[in-house]
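Q: What structure does this chain adopt?
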Amino acid sequence: MKQIALPRIRSWSRREWKDFFVNNAIYIVILGMIAFIIANEPQFVSVAVFRNIMTQSSVRLILAYGVAGIIILQGTDLSLGRNVGFAAVISASLLQRADYASRFYPDLPALPLFVPLIIAAIVSAFFSGINGWVVAKFKIHPFLATLGMMITLYGILSIYFASGAPGPQPIGGFDPRYTEAVVGSTFGIPNLVIYAAITSVIVWILWNKTTFGKNLFAVGGNPEAAEVSGVNVMRTFITTYVLAGVLYGIGGYLEAARIGSANNGTGFGYELDAIAACVVGGISFSGGIGKVSGAIAGVLMFTIISYGMTFIGLDQYYQYIVKGIIIVAAVAIDTQKYLRKV
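A:
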């Protein structure tokens, strides 16, 4: 009787195991933390929790796509949070109910929902585009350029916030159309999740199927080589930052309705969560590396960790410590992977 030869399973070498853990260490740690949360609170695994996590992840994902493009260009954007806050305050001030006592603009008629969205996106794109121009034109490090913009934007935002008829107070009392369009559902699916899914498809197409996407990764990988090859580096920088600004504007518009109000503190610290999610998702600060799927994975993991720590009652101050450690670990691992390739 003829024996059937079974395929031989090759065992990994020590070097292969080491590479596996280096490449996936941050995922292993985060999955371990999720397992710990589930072990302490089995109710964490439920449809209601999953729905909340998906809803909270949606705006964060849109913002993460914006800063992801900048990270691919070997940069960062500390002004993200203030840009989002400005867009949120603009949207909130233009979409209050007509019968609300403390209206920002008492005599403003009801506007179509898309008008404040366009205004918020244009304003955010303008300030973000300035960042891109400064970085490309004057070769200023993105950290410093966006730090200056973050401070400037906070001042402009605070002036606008205080200029309303009621003075500097949280802006609420939104038009029901606005609230329903953002936090409502379509066929049982939260609208925020739908918006995030549409944005994901658009960003994937831009990154993978357009000349802009090819130029983005080329400039991020090696700006000098890209320029020699005929790529307009300045245009690529400005376009990437403008696109990021548009996404920040959309995110701010959605965030104001999601949380139900807006003030000059809205968006504070959002840049840290977005940057951390990108790094955890494998979008490298060394430039030229990043995928839409990585951004999605990073945002989901970070949201699950944040929501999970709140779910088990961990004090917010300890949550900051955990997030900080994850960020440092992710950057350290990313650096090690880059050094191993050099």
